[in-house]
Specification:
Strand content: under 5%
Number of helices: 4
Mean pLDDT: 93
Number of strands: 0
Keywords: Membrane, Transmembrane, Transmembrane helix
Number of domains: 1
Protein name: Integral membrane protein
Oligomer: single chain
């Protein structure tokens, strides 16, 4: 099985967790007032939004990955790098929600930044592969 066949399936099923997260956030905001502090609500929203947008980005990424004509191993490496970055970046917001305080970095903020680096590396690799195959 190719990376561009399996990894989009993982991304699609991961979107279901984002949908559940949206439901949970809506419930906390509308029926459980005061459950989340303003800081926690902001980071819940940020983690939720980043997860959704980045997973949709990954679906587009996997459409273009075969056009870069990487080896099978490189396809897997860059695809997993992208999904790990999505999980790290969005997950970092949730980790900060649990452990962080206003105005101070936490393990969550460091994880969010690391995720951004992984996503950027995967996108740059794809971009280079696409340019080389023009």
């Amino acid at each position: 099985m190719e990376a561009s066949e399996l990894l989009p399936i993982i991304a699609v099923f991961s979107l279901v967790t984002v949908e559940f997260g949206g439901h949970a956030l809506l419930q906390l905001i509308t029926t459980r007032h005061g459950t989340l502090t303003p800081l926690r609500e902001r980071f819940f929203r940020a983690g939720h939004a980043h997860a959704g947008v980045l997973l949709v980005l990954s679906l587009v990424y996997f459409l273009y990955l075969p056009r870069a004509e990487f080896s099978s191993g490189a396809d897997w490496l860059f695809g997993i790098l992208l999904l790990a970055g999505v999980l790290a970046q969005s997950g970092g917001f949730f980790l900060h929600l649990a452990l962080g305080t206003e105005g101070r970095p936490s393990p969550g903020t460091h994880l969010t930044r690391a995720g951004a680096v992984l996503i950027a590396a995967a996108l740059i690799a794809l971009g280079i592969g696409l340019v080389q195959n023009l």
